[in-house]
Amino acid sequence: MDWQVLENPERLYKEFRFRDFREALAFADRVGALAEEKGHHPRLTVEWGRVTVEWWTHTKGGVTERDREMARLTDGLYVP
């Protein structure tokens, strides 16, 4: 898994690139639907041609196996 681990709080971080804002927004929508389905929600930042996704479990103060699974599922939603 090629996600970065950032600190304060500990979290998984990855940047996804797209050709334009429309594709970036569509990806963010797919991640949002996954989050709703699984009941676990990331920090999403949507910009022109880029979406950053951060997963961590607030109640645990960092990254858990659930976050790693959500990161793997997020990778599966990415269609460059």
UniProtKB/TrEMBL annotation:
SUPFAM superfamilies: PCD-like. Its EC number is 4.2.1.96. Pfam families: Pterin_4a. CDD domains: PCD_DCoH_subfamily_a. Gene3D superfamilies: Transcriptional coactivator/pterin dehydratase (3.30.1360.20). One of its GO terms (biological process) is tetrahydrobiopterin biosynthetic process. It catalyses: (4aS,6R)-4a-hydroxy-L-erythro-5,6,7,8-tetrahydrobiopterin = (6R)-L-erythro-6,7-dihydrobiopterin + H2O. One of its GO terms (molecular function) is 4-alpha-hydroxytetrahydrobiopterin dehydratase activity. Keywords: Lyase. Belongs to the pterin-4-alpha-carbinolamine dehydratase family. PANTHER family: PTERIN-4-ALPHA-CARBINOLAMINE DEHYDRATASE-RELATED (PTHR42805:SF1). This is 4a-hydroxytetrahydrobiopterin dehydratase. It comes from Thermus oshimai JL-2.
